[in-house]
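Project standup — Tuesday

K.O.: blocked on the structure for the chain from last sprint. Re-posting the sequence here as requested.
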Amino acid sequence: MNQARTAVRNTSAPSRRPRRPRAALATAAVLVGATSLGALGSAQAATPGTTRSAATRTSVTSLWTTRHVARGVEVRTGTVTNAKAAPAWTITVQAPTTGRLSGAATWATVGPRSWADTTAGQLRANGFAPRVDRIDWPAYSDTPHGLMGLRVRVGSYATQAEAAAAAQAVTAAGFHTAVEWTGYDADQPADVENLHVAIVDPRTFTGTVTGTHDGSVTQRGTTSSVAAKLRSLVGVNAGFFVTSDSDGVQGIQSGIAVYDGRLESMAAGARAALVLTDGGRHARIADLTSTAVARVGGARYTVEGINRVPGTVRDCGRPGGTPSERPWQDVTCHKTDDLVLFTPEFTAALPTGTGSQAVLDRSGKVVSVGARGGFVPAGGSVLQGIGSAADWLTAHAAPERRVDVEETVRDERGRKVVLGKGDSIVSAAPTLVENGRVRIDAAAEGTVDPKDLSFGYAWANTRQPRTMAGIDRRGRLILATVDGRQAGGSEGFTLQEAAEFMRSLGADQALNLDGGGSTAMAVNGALVNHTSDATGERAVGDTLQVLPRTNH
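H.V.: unblocked you, prediction finished:
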């Protein structure tokens, strides 16, 4: 989910007004009570079929349909509404600030009290009637508690067009404005939430669960098209990936990725990952890091990337990167000295530019050394270096010499993660639930910055389409999506609401996967949720697929 896609709407480019249903969701806490239904703890028939159930709690109404896709696999589709919600269009007056990483002037939805008081006074002096709202920090585990800042708004309008017209006068008075739908605010009730939850029970399911890039890390495909091709029972989008040529090669992952036991992308710092071993029969969530070293005889050099453009690190999180070595969501960092390994799954043309490369055969023997470019040979690999890494390759990777690359993945306890055939890792950020409790390490995983309220506010703290994965104490895998940014009204979750929802489903561990326009769930190869991009279902990097026994 890209930061730019989740920025507040500016009046210069208004979007369509969501058509409001009659009822709306209040908060995640209420949603928890409405959606649990004793659902994951109940024993139900394992044969394919459909059941329906409804629950009402005060103003909240939920309607759920259960579909038994295969033995050990069921999908629940829910609509949760709240009759008390009354969202509207409004004008947000934004606070000037400076991006901490970029150093550039920018704008934030919330600001300090001094700014809010001054701005409200200036608005009144210009004939407007502002309201000032207190915005508190969500219950993240690693950010301040209490007051985040104050938000200044003007007016309440039935349509976006009315709000946009009114915003012109506020802008003309010298204020920076954005037209926003209050149903996306964490402090306001949402209209409605459309939800899909897939539960996979490894005790009875005889197939496999796998992360896949469908054979090429440089291609993008929709979740439903991959699911249809693989004859998947259930598929969801998975990890963060490059979406723009300026940030690398489109489709490649921006975090750790393992397919069929092979490391195809390195970690962006220590971020949450779903680890599936033994064909998905065992699953866990952990904060993973990865390291790699290239050796030629006694000489060695650290490999800092796999299947990415040398010097370009999407989501940051690698040593030596600037402006930061920490993970930062949707930020591209850069390195001047960088050694990158390319595997056979990198099927596009190799990056070109300054530096050098060594082409290796399947045994690791150097076939050639020279300028960057060309393609990865079948069964072989390529090392590309820039800066001092290029000098190291030129000095040591001579033809006929052997280059060994040793890769290591470790969890947050420093334990080595041993990978074998059929094992998968998909990653995103942040952790949502740990040991049965909501625990969102939003700052550590680079999705918010307590020192820069312009960074990550919309991405994390307002409602967005989300895809989530969790594991309950019985070892069942839970895959969930919530629609958002919908013309029909479904507004999505904040990170806090996503965590509360997964916990309500019985998740003992859970993480946030890629979301926004990427959020998709397919059942039997057909898309079942409503994606948010105006152009339709987004082509993504990798996906998670639940495959019947005949597929392995």
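K.O.: great, moving the ticket to review. Residues 113-125 form the longest helix (13 residues). The mean pLDDT is 91.
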